[in-house]
Each structure stands twice: as C-alpha cells, then as structure tokens.
From TrEMBL:
It comes from Marilutibacter penaei. Pfam families: AstE_AspA_cat (PF24827). Keywords: Carboxypeptidase, Hydrolase, Metal-binding, Protease, Zinc. Belongs to the peptidase M14 family. This is M14 family metallocarboxypeptidase. The lineage of its organism: Bacteria, Pseudomonadati, Pseudomonadota, Gammaproteobacteria, Lysobacterales. Its cofactor is Zn(2+). Residues 1-23 are annotated as: Disordered. GO terms for molecular function: hydrolase activity, acting on ester bonds; metallocarboxypeptidase activity; zinc ion binding. It comes from the Bacteria. Residues 31-313 form the Peptidase M14 domain. Gene3D superfamilies: Zn peptidases. One of its GO terms (biological process) is proteolysis.
Amino acid sequence: MTPQPRFHPIGTPGQPWGDAERSEWRSRQVRHRRYDEEVLPAIERLRADFDVEEYGRLEYDGEAYPLLAVRSRAWDPDLPTMLVTGGVHGYETSGVHGALRFLERHAHAYAGRANLLVAPCVSPWAYERIHRWNPDAIDPNRSFVEDSPAGESAALMRLVAPIRDSARLHIDLHETTDSDETEFRPALAARDGKPFEPGEIPDGFYLVGDSENPQAAFQQAVVDAVAGVTHIAPADGRGEIIGAPVVGHGVINYPLKALGLCAGITEAAYTTTTEVYPDSPRATPEQCNIAQATAVCAAMDYALAHDPGGAAA
C-alpha cells in the first residue's frame, strides 16, 4: 500500500489525532496578542451606556478568560431582540473589532427601538493565538450542540437561552482568510485522519444564510449595504463559493443547526453569518471592521422594518 503523503507536521496520515497529537498541537500555539489589552478594555468603556455582564469564564493552562457580553440597559420585552456575535473563531479579527465598532459608533441609534445583546469575542484564547480552534483542537463553530464539547460554545448557548425563542435577528461575524487554505483546513484534515483536498478562497465579502430559512431579501439587503464598503465575492467557475452553490449575489446557504454553527443557536427569523476577506489587496483592516459594522446595521434595519413573515412593518 502506498503511504499517504504528509501534508501536516502533526500526526500520522490517515489516522485521527489522539491525546498525544492534540497535546503536541497545543504546545505549538503561541500568543501573538492580548485579549486583556485589546478587547476587555474596549468592552469596559461601554459600561457608561450599556450593561456589561460576565457570562462565563474559561481557564486554560492556569489562565482565566472572562467572557463578556454587552446588553441594552433599558431592556424592554415589548421590543424586538437582536443578537450579535463575534470572535467565535478567534483569528477572525474583524469579527471582534467589527462588533466593538458597532457598539461604539452605531448601537445608540437603536436605543428604544430594539434590545441588543452582543458577545464581541466568544473565543478569547484563540483570539490571542490567532487560531480557529480552542485549546482542545475543537472548532467552536461546529460545536453549538447539546452537551457541547467546547466551553466557548456552551457558555454562549447558556447566555442566549433566555432569548432563544424570542430573538428576531442573529448576525454572526466571521472572516474567510488565506490561512484557511494554508493552515486551518490542512490541520482539520490531519486532525480527522482525512486527506487534504485543496479549495479556493473567495476574493471578497459574502454571507452564509440558513438553507432551512434562507430569507433571500434579508441577505441581499445586507450584501447591498456592504457593497458600499468593500467588494463582494463572485462565484467561482462552478457557480460556488467555498463549495456551496451561490443563491444570490454574494450569498450561499448552509444548514446552520445541523452543522452546529453559531448562527443557528436561536429561532430568529433573520440569521446570517458574515464572511469578510481581510487578505485582499483591495481591503484594509479598517475597511473590514467597517464592513462588519455596516452588515450589523443593515441586518438590524431590515429586521426592524419587516415582521418575521417578511412583510413591511
């Protein structure tokens, strides 16, 4: 039998990782930035206008990571509730800083119109290490399931539980990066003992809607708003983006709940996952943050103007 080619430095090709391989992988992870210097102070500054709560605390290798959420102070059960999440994948920087930008610059415009619940950085350990996984080599964004193996995901689900059935909107802020193809997808294949199959990184912003509740007009309204900030990803030669058929300009759909994705944790009528492309020569980090905040505003504006059935309010 011809041995499988090695495409990742950890593990044996064709064999899923065990504890030894996960431990080796974890030992290789290096802190590149500080959650307690870049994220926590920005959230703390919001206490003047919002309620800030610690909804969980993760402890890894003797270090504690408080999980903070920002909530409308004048919470009104008669208003629609909007959920925003960022940093589920810690390396997707604009997900975190786009959520913070929205809170700092735009959230005040929704006071008295909507209840806001924002979790800007769901995965702080991964934020520091610019990684997709948590320390156990688990992807939080495939772990929003009952008895979740990821502490990050379990904590967020507990936070959201009281609004799970009543939320009108959930927008989850992500990025698709070149490192998905060079680092994270090869690591995933190695971890699971599967061959690595190269893919294609789309050049531009796109959305991932819910194949069980696609809400095409809502998705298009968000794309149209972001198009004023950064370019929208075209379909590839197969009419796809990251292997999924394009169903609208810059829009694909996934079965959110079946895949354990963050955007599927509520019964909201309007759900989407943003995907910013920060490695494009046509986009700057600031542009990426603005694109995320713009997407949040557009999503909220649409959700406020339409009832869950899609009729104008």
